[in-house]
Amino acid sequence: MITAVDTSVLLDIFLADEAFLEGSLSRLEQAADEGLLVASEVVWAEVSAAFNSSKDAGQALETIGIVFSPADAEAGLIAGDSWRIYRKSGGDRNRMIADFLIAAHAVVAADRLLTRDRGFYRSYFETLEILSP
User: Fold this and answer.
1) pTM of the model
2) Residue 40 class from Cβ within 10 Å (0-12 exposed, 13-18 middle, 19+ buried)?
């Protein structure tokens, strides 16, 4: 089982978010017990911004067992299609295309996505299995 991990879950853990740390850590550990944990370059970049250096971020991701898994052309096209549908249906620019890239990467490279943002992802990626903390 391959689980793609969203930025929200990782930041809950790395920043020790009082409201979400316990749930996110528990669900991440469960997913790790069931198989491989991966994250796309978008997630790596977003997580890296929360650290003092990219080296620290990379070490933290590797320490908890997250494997770098870049998105491919298929994921980019799926993200673009989903973004287009979102915008045509009245979606505003508060939702960034990075979110669509994270989900599209999970569709192509994983069996499921671990995220706290399940409502949004369920709306635009109906076939994607979502795990929530």
Assistant:
1) 0.92
2) buried
